[in-house]
Amino acid sequence: MTIQARPRSPWESLDLGFALARAWFGRLWLCWWLTAGPVALVAALVLHRHPQLWLLLLWWCKPAFEALPLYWLSRAVFGEQLAVAATLRSLPRALPPRLWPQCLWRRIAMHRAFSMPVTLLEAPRGRARRQRLRRLGTGASAWLTLVCAQLEGIFWLSGILLLAFLIPAGLPMPDLTTAFVDAGPASYWAGSLLLLVAMSVVAPCYVAAGFALYLGRRTELEAWDLELVFRRRSPRGGRSARAGAAPLLLATVLAAAAPSPVAAAVMTPAEAKARIEAVLAQPDFGDTREVHVWVYVGADSPSAAAADDGAVLPAWLVQALASGAKWALIGLAAGALIALALRLLPISGGAQRRRRRRREAGAPASPPRAGDAPTPPTDIAAAVRHALAIGDVRGALGLLYREQVTQLRATGLALPDGATEAQCLRAARARLQPQALTRLTRVVTLWRAAAYGHQPVRPDSVAALLPAEAKACAHNDHG
Question: Are residues 227 and 90 in the same domain?
């Protein structure tokens, strides 16, 4: 497969479908027009006096136009991208007779994008098709239909407004309402053609997203990812891959949902049940435990009557004692809460009074908490050298980074307290000189490597970030 087969949620499958549509948009769009173009031309010759019927006919035949893109996509996902000539030759297989119910009583189904891969690729009929769709589910296909219909409307209205805006100012502006409601003038034909173009643009995304939903459900229910791994590792699967047998692989994988008729005929229902019970009896499927629980059987049950007959105390006395114990526990809990509140209120009031007296007397405030920002030292260079001397490279980088942020704020740059390193760099590009910006970039790079990447940083690399005068003093001190 040209995609990674793994279980996906419905929304992730939709993302995969839109990614496939972007990757193969040109070919899927061409496949759509290979069927829609001839039908549109023939219908225009017949219904040239009734453009509204022409547009309704094309809209109703959209499932037939989507069959060829779906056929091409089902081959491309398995590594076989058909050329234009091969695509034209595959029209009879892409437009089978079972497609016509999709254009008749199933036309207005909201899950058409999901049901068409089942109908055209697996080809079940009648009750088997209904059971297959019920087993697979429809996922988010209804939301897909709704969103793609809205996209068609947006593209259509945007095209009409674009044509209106392209008219020069000196020419009369046509009445835009005729492009929507009046079937007579040429503006209605222009609006109809734009709607056909909008349908062609959205169709590749709609078909690919529906097919991706179908692949996601089959992968989730039938473990396609594991099956494909086994096929690649088996000698026969390797020879098939080397021979380029993508169509055979597609037919085999698409037929993997139902058991083989030959295999079903060999095993009887009794044998199948016995085999299933033998598999479920294995330790991998769990174990059996006995759990004892209390179950209320009611006062009128025989067991309750027998228990009352042999009881030491009558039932009414037991119930009264239990009720009394319950209310006694509630009273004790309430008393404990009241006592705790009375105990904490004087402590809190005394702490507030002490803080008020310290503020009135000018006493220094309480020491900063652990979560507060540390006060930067007066001599940053000395603090950095001390941190490097004791082996605290991360602390030295933190000091240099805080120094850079302080200098940025000193220049009048408003940086929020929660600004990230990338935000600081973007803001510094408009204020700092190239040399200072290079130093800040180097500080941020080393800080990220040490703080987030947990990578070793050489102390001399940090020392090289000190200002020139600080490095000179450090050299004289060592000399």
Answer: yes
